[in-house]
Specification:
Elements lengths: L2 H20 L3 H12 L23 E10 L1 H10 L6 E5 L5 E10 L4 H14 L4 H10 L2 H12 L5 H9 L2 H12 L10
Antiparallel strand pairs: 1-3, 2-3
Amino acid sequence: MDDRQARLDRVAHIAVALEAQTGCPAALLVAQWAIESEWGAKPAGHDNYFGVKREARHTKWCTVTTEEVFTPLQLETWNHQHAASPARAIATLPDGRQRVEIDDEFADYDSLDASCQDYTWLITHGTPYREAWRQYQRDKNLAALIRAVARVYATAPRYADMAEEIATQSNVLQAIAGASAAPVTATGLPG
């Protein structure tokens, strides 16, 4: 088994366990994990597999250089709030948005499991996702949840499309099905 498949299988087991505990769909967790960490190969900082920015609830964090896509207003706001470390322009997109490089603070975690737990807390309890989560609890429409989360979660063009594509890929569905069929311990790893 290659490293990418092993990482996918591991996160699928954690995602299935967390879905059972919180209701946060395993496919959503796996899709964002895949996008944000290049299938688990490149976490932001220490064990941050979801690109979660530092918030008051985080006791550990680091500064990471990342790429974002900003509207002119978002760019102006960022540069005003971060005058000591302004955004560095990379390219202008056809719609007028700017692809920029910024230095931002990201949460650090002790493990993949802790990163996944915080991600599910963010989706199921975080203010930016509150309405999307409530709607999902009513209708269980995974595609709509992915799109609603993506609108807030990321600035990258086509982020929602990528997340939806990954959530429905056969390798992801097979990993989730395999994890669902396996006995799971409290840590989310196979028993």
